[in-house]
Amino acid sequence: MSTPLRFVVVGLGARSRTWLRVMQASPDVQIVGLADPSPAARDAALKLLPDATVAAEISKLTQMVEADVALLVTPPGGREGQIEACLAAKLDILAEKPLADDVSSAARHVRAAEAAGRTLIVGLNFRFLPVTVALKQALNAGIVGAPEFARFTYERWRDGQLPHLNKYPLVMDHPMLWEQSIHHFDLMRHVYGKEVTRIHARTFNPSWSMYRGDANVFALLEFDGGLHVSYQGTWAGGVDRLDFDWRTDCTEGVLIQREMFGDLVMARRHDTSFKPVPTLPHEPWITDAAALLEMAVAAFRGTGPVLCSGRDHLQSLLMLAACIRSSDRRAPVEIEELRQEIIQPEDTP
Ligand SMILES: NC(=O)c1ccc[n+]([C@@H]2O[C@H](COP(=O)([O-])OP(=O)(O)OC[C@H]3O[C@@H](n4cnc5c(N)ncnc54)[C@H](O)[C@@H]3O)[C@@H](O)[C@H]2O)c1
C-alpha cells in the first residue's frame, strides 16, 4: 500500500465538514494541517483532528508543516494568495468549485499551476454520483440512440440564512450561476461529451428572493453537433422544496433523471411506461466526494488521469460568463467570443 498523501485543508466552513469526514475515512490521505482565519472554525476542526497543525492562513501553515496537497474549501473569490502560497510550497491543489468568481481569475490560477508544474483539480463531485455514471454510460452505449435535445430543471427554495449553510452567496452578483448552475453545466458537458457553442440566457431575481444577486437562470444552450438544452434553475422557487428533472430526448427514446441523486429511467419511443436504469448504491455527498478524492489522489500520484482539471473547468466557467453577457445584451452569445476575450490573449506564450 502507498504512503498516504499529506493534505492541508484550507477553509473550515460548511463544505469542509463533508471533506473532513471523507478524508478521515480514506487510507490514502493524512490530514496534517488546517487553515482558517476564524478561531471558532479552527477549534471545531481541531476537535476532529487534534494532531493537526493549525494556522489562520495557508501561507503561515506551509511554513509550519510539510504537505503534498492542499484542499481549498474557501469561498471562490480572493483565492489568489492561497493559490500562490500553495504553489510556492510545491503543493498540488484540489479546489472546490467554482475555481474563482470570474473567468479571468480562474484562468490565472490555471496558468500559475501549470507554470509551477503542479496539478490543479476542481472538485466536481456530481460527476462521481452513481446516477451520473449510469447516465453517461447509457448515453455512450446508445441504449436509446443519440441525444438531440434535453430539458434540465432545478427548482429549489434555498434558505441562505440557515446556520449550516455558507453566507457569502447572499451577496454575490450571480449566486445561482456561480454556486449551483456550475455543477449543472459541468454535468451536461461531462455526460454529453460535447462543448457548448452558443447560449441565449436571461438571469433575474424574483421579488421574494433573499439573494442580492440573480437567483434565477433561464438558458437555451446549443452544443456542438446540434444538441439543444433548455435549462431552468432557481434558488428562489415559490415553494420550500427541491425539484430536479433532467430529460434527454434521443433518436430512439428518452433518458430521465428524476432526482438530484438518482431515479434514472428510460423509455423507447413507443413504450407505455418508464423502465428504471440501475445505479450503484450510494450515500449522498459522501460516496461522490470519496470517489472524487480517489480520482484526485491517483492523479496527484501520477497513477491515474486528471478528470476535472482546472483547464477543463474554464470551459464551464465560460458558460456562466456567457449567460451573464447574453442576459445583459438580450441576445445569444457565442462561447468563442468570450474565450478569445478572456482566455486566449493571456495564454499565448
Ligand atoms: N461541491 C459541492 O457540493 C459544494 C457544496 C458546498 C460548497 N461548495 C464549495 O466549497 C467552497 C466553500 O464553501 P463553504 O460552504 O464551505 O463556505 P463557508 O463560508 O461555509 O466556509 C468557508 C470558510 O473559508 C474560510 N476562509 C475564508 N478566507 C480564507 C482564507 N484566506 N484562508 C483560509 N480560510 C478562509 C472562512 O473563514 C470559512 O470558514 C465554495 O467554493 C463552495 O462553492 C461545494
UniProtKB/TrEMBL annotation:
Residues 134-254 form the GFO/IDH/MocA-like oxidoreductase domain. Residues 5-123 form the Gfo/Idh/MocA-like oxidoreductase N-terminal domain. The keyword Lyase does not apply. Its EC number is 1.1.1.370. SUPFAM superfamilies: Glyceraldehyde-3-phosphate dehydrogenase-like, C-terminal domain (SSF55347), NAD(P)-binding Rossmann-fold domains (SSF51735). Keywords: Oxidoreductase. It is an enzyme of class 1 (oxidoreductase). The keyword Repeat does not apply. Gene3D superfamilies: Dihydrodipicolinate Reductase, domain 2, NAD(P)-binding Rossmann-like Domain. GO terms for molecular function: nucleotide binding; oxidoreductase activity. This is Scyllo-inositol 2-dehydrogenase (NAD(+)). It comes from Palleronia abyssalis.
